[in-house]
Amino acid sequence: MNHNFQLLTFNFQLKKMKPKILFISILLLLSLQSNAQKTSKKIGFYGGFGLNFSTGYTYFSLQPGLIYHVSNKFKLGTGVQYTYLKSNKSYYGVNYRYNIYGYNTMALFYPYKELEMSVEFEDLYIKQNYNNISNTFWSPALFGGLGYHYGPVVAGFKYNFLFDPTKSIYKEAFTPFVRIYFNL
Q: In which domain, by residue range, is 123 found?
């Protein structure tokens, strides 16, 4: 079986699983939130925030999530995200606007206190307007990551196993990341 057929088969199966994964993510978020009072030391918050304004360019991103501490070595998490990106044609030569909505689920493993290994599924719905041509599409990503944990901050790289340069919202398969964890 060739690689393209296997990837096509995997993507088809992934598309059938999207509603189930989204439903499980929502259930996990609701379950973690409802149990937060009983297990406050086991629940944490993580997220990302981005903001950039310059001449002809606007970027805003918000990515909150909840983490459940299964043990000292293992955590599960789920989150949502929104990103807005806009460029002005008169300054950059192109006119584009993106509204990106998504969710993610992840499992984190700590073989050593400072080392974080992660597996993360992310699914993004992109509304794109590029030089007045509108397009909408889903961009799934399955990441394997490795990060250095220092206090509440983890920095590292993750690799997108579903990366396709013609369909992915990411420019490269390798992506740097920084996560900050907070206990509730």
A: 3-183
Contact 180, 158 (CB under 8 A): no
Q: Is 12 exposed, middle or buried (0-12, 13-18, 19+ CB in 10 A)?
A: exposed
Cβ atoms 122, 138 nearer than 8 A: no
124-146 pLDDT, tens digit per residue, is 999 998 888 899 999 999 999 99
Distances (CA, A) of 121 to 92, 99, 107, 141: 33, 20, 9, 6
Place of tokens 């300054």: 91
For 18-71, give the DSSP string: HHHHHHHHHHHHHHHHHTTTTTTTTEEEEEEEEEEEETTEEEEEEEEEEEEESS
The reported pLDDT for the residue numbered 6 is 39
**Residue 22: CB atoms within 10 Å:** 14
Q: How many domains does the chain have?
A: 1
What is the domain-level CATH number for residue 135?
2.40.160
Question: β-pairing, 133-150 with 115-130?
Answer: antiparallel
pLDDT in tens, 105-117: 999 999 998 999 9
Phi and psi at 135, nearest 5°, equal -155, 145
172, two tokens: 């490269």
pTM reported for the whole predicted model: 0.71
3-state SS, residue 165: coil
